[in-house]
């Protein structure tokens, strides 16, 4: 529901958010009260020492004070459990209860201070009683400090501007006033977000690119968050309900609905060949991350393997540029790719906003010059990711509407200028003129690689690009169609990044608003059952995803509805399920690069365990990634090490199927062949 209004301002917490923190404090207070009561009853006869009367009075008052606090907390928890997210009527007394609870902190603080003063006087009484009072003072101040921290966390800098309208209905303001309010909130929100980002990224730098990135990121966040009146727990509950809803829809689909057609033999052969290429070039995309990813993938042996390289200095002999621990990076790159020192033309770990690390190497096995661009690994890279406006590009590719993600296009332009102006590609092709150019990358690096490939295509017509887990919001429609001729993207499972764009985030927000507005369960039940579902699974049919028609009679007032969760009717919204979302001019619909191979997990291998996971591969259309899917693997599916394991599995399984089809045999000695050889032979047959 909308955030509570206390002391004349809105706070980033709702009246139904106090079930879990209230129950935790209530449990602590009850145990504390029982302990103090037991201490007093068992030791009151030993308080005849000097100062004993004061201690006895202290314990009695504390017992009474704790009893009053326990009663107040019980009322807060009980009231917070009532109603639903969009039906706050049963919780209208919550503000008064919170005022009472906050007022009780004043005598508690005074009593805790008094107890600390008495302890400092070194009262000579029963040690058990004294130790009990010491524990009481410590616990009191821990709770007080925790409450202050909580108040700071839920403080909303824009709360003073939103409070006068937080309880108004969607028709409270006319369209002109609503538009003015929304613009004012966005302006204030942009300023607040820019301040937050500058504090978070205080060590990044102060150059022009960084300042532009700060402004772009702040505007993105303010655009996305300023027109809704949701608190963080509402979003968590909405994501939980969406996950169950998506699983329910998927389970109800027939197999032929999931895969509408079976690809023919030519497509299968092409898929096998491209999978083998992806399997090979993913090593270069992973190598671009340097030693951190290598150590992460090899936690027990990695440091031993590259330790010797870390102690050597090769920067004078080899073209390594920028960053620290370059020799460690070089050692991990050698281990990951299996190449020799002489095979590398250029390695750069220079890292700034809009400027990405990359490497250039000669791949003799595939007879290619490989350019690998690193993905997100720093705050600078995150700012590049979040500069999500659309930018027009000046490209010589014969395509109209050449627009793309601003931050990634500038990063690609930086790599392009380095490759061309510094003569890096000329040097590579002077050594191996018959080789072809291949550009690869993962995540942010995949997006930069795809745009870099478009920039280089006119000079290198045989160029190929392999984009691993690229962002969706990257290319205009025309550039997306153009990139299909030379780019292959690989997506694993429910990976959120290939589904992530400003348009998809707006769609996700719209779906969250709808699902929580149509839910007839209290938030604490949604979150509890949602946690159980995420951890252990279950039947999504048994979980609340929409409001039953007969349940409306039990509500104390009508549901607030979806419009009430907006700051007075954001003009960009239409809540018809069939209505397309309007995209702001700065954030038009953008698409992922190239043809897409989708790796999907077969069956279930546990919600987090991947030891026995098996995958299938198929060509997919970009429309299959037009919605963000919610699930426990939406983040882990993006990790490069998980993607590499999935590629190993699917390439081996498909090769084994080719040579050992069901019911048949093969005379090929498969033990002596690696997956790449299997795929090569399969495509030659």
Please explain how this structure is put together.
The longest helix is centred in the first third of the chain and has 29 residues, at 52-80. It is built from 23 helices and 13 strands. Among the domains are: 5-153, no CATH class; 266-307 and 320-499 and 592-604 and 611-658, Alpha/Beta hydrolase fold, catalytic domain (Rossmann fold, 3-Layer(aba) Sandwich), CATH 3.40.50.1820. The strands form three sheets. It has a nine-stranded mixed β-sheet with strand order 3-4-5-6-9-10-11-12-13, with helices on both faces. It has a two-stranded antiparallel ribbon with strand order 1-2. A two-stranded antiparallel ribbon has the order 7-8. The chain has 685 residues and is α/β, with parallel strands linked by helices. It has helices spanning 19-43, 52-80, 94-103, 105-120, 127-153, 159-162, 175-200, 208-225, 232-252, 255-258, 265-287, 291-297, 302-310, 326-337, 379-386, 406-421, 424-431, 444-456, 477-483, 502-517, 523-536, 640-659, 675-684, and strands at 5-6, 9-10, 320-321, 344-348, 358-363, 368-373, 390-392, 403-405, 436-442, 464-468, 487-492, 595-602, 614-620.
């Amino acid at each position: 529901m909308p955030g509570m209004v206390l002391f004349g301002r809105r706070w980033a917490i709702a009246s139904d958010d106090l079930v879990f923190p209230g129950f935790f404090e209530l449990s602590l207070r009850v145990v504390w009260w029982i302990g103090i009561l037991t201490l007093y009853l068992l030791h009151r006869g030993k308080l005849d020492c000097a100062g004993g009367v004061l201690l006895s009075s202290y314990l009695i008052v504390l017992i009474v004070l704790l009893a009053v606090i326990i009663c107040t907390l019980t009322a807060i928890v009980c009231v917070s459990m009532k109603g639903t997210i969009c039906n706050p009527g049963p919780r209208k007394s919550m503000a008064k209860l919170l005022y009472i609870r906050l007022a009780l902190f004043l005598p508690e603080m005074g009593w805790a201070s008094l107890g600390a003063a008495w302890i400092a006087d070194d009262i000579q009484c029963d040690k058990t009683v004294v130790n009990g009072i010491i524990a009481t003072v410590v616990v009191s101040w821990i709770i007080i400090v925790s409450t202050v921290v909580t108040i700071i966390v839920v403080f909303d800098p824009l709360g003073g501007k939103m409070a006068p309208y937080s309880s108004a209905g969607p028709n409270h303001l006319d369209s002109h006033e609503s538009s003015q309010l929304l613009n004012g909130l966005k302006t204030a929100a942009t300023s607040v977000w820019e301040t937050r980002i500058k504090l978070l990224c205080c060590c990044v730098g102060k150059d022009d690119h960084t300042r532009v990135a700060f402004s772009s990121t702040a505007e993105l966040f303010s655009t996305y968050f300023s027109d809704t009146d949701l608190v963080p727990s509402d979003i968590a509950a909405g994501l939980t309900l969406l996950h169950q809803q998506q699983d329910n829809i998927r389970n109800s689909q027939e197999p032929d609905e999931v895969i509408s057609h079976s690809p023919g033999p030519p497509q299968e052969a092409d898929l096998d060949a491209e999978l083998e290429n992806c399997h090979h070039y993913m090593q270069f995309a992973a190598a671009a991350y340097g030693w951190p990813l290598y150590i992460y993938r090899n936690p027990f042996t990695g440091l031993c393997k590259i330790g010797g390289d870390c102690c050597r200095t090769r920067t004078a002999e080899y073209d390594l540029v920028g960053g620290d621990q370059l020799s460690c990076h070089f050692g991990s790159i050698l281990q990951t790719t299996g190449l020799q020192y002489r095979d590398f033309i250029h390695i750069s770990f220079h890292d700034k906003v809009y400027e990405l690390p990359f490497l250039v190497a000669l791949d003799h096995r595939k007879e290619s010059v490989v350019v690998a661009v690193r993905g997100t690994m720093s705050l600078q890279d995150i700012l590049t990711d979040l500069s999500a406006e659309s930018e027009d590009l000046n490209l010589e590719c014969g395509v109209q509407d050449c627009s793309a993600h601003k931050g990634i296009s500038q990063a690609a332009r930086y790599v392009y200028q380095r490759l061309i102006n510094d003569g890096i590609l000329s040097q590579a092709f002077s050594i191996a003129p018959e080789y072809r150019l291949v550009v690869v990358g993962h995540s942010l690096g995949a997006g930069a690689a795809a745009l870099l490939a478009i920039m280089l295509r006119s000079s290198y017509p045989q160029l190929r690009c392999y984009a691993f887990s690229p962002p969706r919001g990257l290319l205009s429609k025309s550039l997306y169609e153009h990139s299909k001729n030379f780019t292959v993207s690989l997506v694993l499972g429910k990976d959120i990044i290939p589904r992530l764009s400003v348009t998809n985030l707006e769609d996700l927000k719209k779906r969250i608003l709808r699902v929580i507005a149509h839910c007839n369960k209290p938030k604490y039940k949604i979150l509890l059952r949602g946690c159980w579902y995420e951890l252990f699974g279950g039947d999504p049919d048994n979980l609340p995803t929409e409001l039953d028609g007969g349940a409306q009679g039990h509500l104390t007032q009508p549901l607030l509805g979806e419009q009430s969760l907006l700051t007075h009717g954001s003009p960009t919204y239409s809540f018809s399920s069939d209505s397309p979302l309007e995209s702001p001019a700065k954030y038009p619909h953008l698409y992922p690069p190239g043809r897409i191979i989708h790796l999907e997990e077969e069956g279930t291998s546990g919600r987090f365990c991947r030891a026995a996971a098996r995958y299938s591969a198929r060509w997919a259309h970009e429309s299959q990634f037009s919605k963000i899917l919610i699930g426990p693997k939406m983040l882990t599916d993006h990790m490069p090490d998980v993607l590499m394991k999935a590629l190993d599995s699917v390439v081996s399984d498909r090769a084994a199927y080719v040579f050992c089809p069901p019911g048949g045999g093969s005379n090929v000695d498969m033990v002596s062949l690696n997956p790449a050889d299997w795929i090569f032979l399969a495509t030659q047959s």
